[in-house]
Design goal:
The protein has three domains: 65 residues; 103 residues; 138 residues, no CATH class. It has eleven helices and no strands. The chain starts with 6 loop residues before the first helix and ends with a helix.
Length: 315
């Protein structure tokens, strides 16, 4: 069922628009009341993030309204940009160029074509099996052995995170869930909403109550107070949204917990990679958010696990 004709998904969209409108109003008020240089810089960053969220919400809604094909086009583009950001941070040599051509222009589009064909048996193993084995063969054939293992691992890691994991987001639309036929757009909406709310709420709780840092050398802004408060709040919201999913309230609570824990782990891992490379963000495409990979790092880890749990227990 298309997004625009689904009443429950319409209610979700209205809720998101209300939150964005409220956030915009709060940002407008803060911009006029806060005068200190540090405070104004924080508010400017907040308003930049809100403007970016408006744009992303519109693009996401249009893609969902177009059905499976629209979602595949959107997330394939996001995979392409995210992979480009990742590879930019991991310098390659001439011997990697043909392998990278295969990654960007063969493996990436083929993965999404298979998702569109609903060929689970192949899209679930294309990259972790076939690409994993073929790409290093192609790199070795170039005859460049310098840092070969490190270079190959970087390419494979980027392909897994930016393409394979991300492709499981639109793949949710291919699941055949009894009693839920034609409603999978709500499941995709649920995954993205819970993941992003968890990030926002962990950030908010951390800024207001955070004292004890979880991994200060990896991500200085992540605190135990922010993690616990954000996860608990998100689980409550996820549980209250059980009616848009094929889950019971208790199952929705468990799925929300799964999404938030995996999302937190994804953000931590991707932050560790940035620290290793000595950069703050993967890119600067999204105002106030950095690059595409900075925005979807949590989704990269949450999506495949959520997909497989849903497929195993509910189809």
């Amino acid at each position: 069922m298309n997004l625009i004709f689904d009443r429950q998904t319409g209610w979700l969209a209205e809720g998101v628009l209300t939150l964005l409108a409220l956030s915009s109003f709060i940002g407008w008020v803060l911009a006029r009341r806060i005068t200190g240089d540090k405070g104004r810089a924080t508010v400017q960053n907040l308003n930049a993030r809100i403007r970016a969220w408006w744009l992303m919400a519109v693009i996401f809604s249009l893609a969902l309204a177009a059905g499976l094909s629209g979602a595949i086009i959107l997330f394939a583009f996001m995979s392409f940009v995210a992979l480009r950001e990742f590879i930019t941070l991991t310098p390659t040599r001439l011997g990697d160029h043909r392998s990278l051509f295969w990654v960007f222009f063969i493996a990436l589009p083929l993965q999404y074509v298979l998702v569109g064909m609903k060929w689970y048996g192949l899209f679930s193993i294309l990259i972790p099996v076939y690409a994993f084995l073929i790409l290093p063969i192609r790199s070795a054939a170039a005859g460049d052995c310098r840092n070969f293992l490190e270079r190959t691992a970087k390419i494979q890691w980027g392909l897994m995170i930016c393409v394979y994991c991300v492709s499981y987001i639109p793949a949710l639309l291919t699941l055949n869930i009894p009693g839920y036929v034609g409603q999978n757009a709500k499941l995709l909406f649920y995954l993205v909403l819970i993941t992003q709310l968890s990030d926002v709420l962990q950030y908010t709780w951390g800024k207001t109550m955070g004292r004890h840092k979880i991994a200060p050398e990896v991500s200085p802004n992540k605190t135990w107070e922010g993690f616990i408060g954000g996860v608990a709040s998100t689980i409550l919201i996820g549980t209250s949204l059980w009616w848009v999913t094929p889950f019971t309230p208790l199952q929705s609570a468990g799925m929300s917990a799964l999404i938030t824990f995996m999302g937190f782990g994804g953000g931590l891992v991707m932050s560790a990679i940035k620290r290793d490379r000595g950069v703050k963000d993967y890119g600067n495409l999204i105002e106030g958010h950095g690059g595409v990979l900075d925005r979807i790092d949590s989704l990269c880890f949450a999506a495949p696990v959520f997909f497989h749990f849903t497929r195993y227990f509910f189809t």
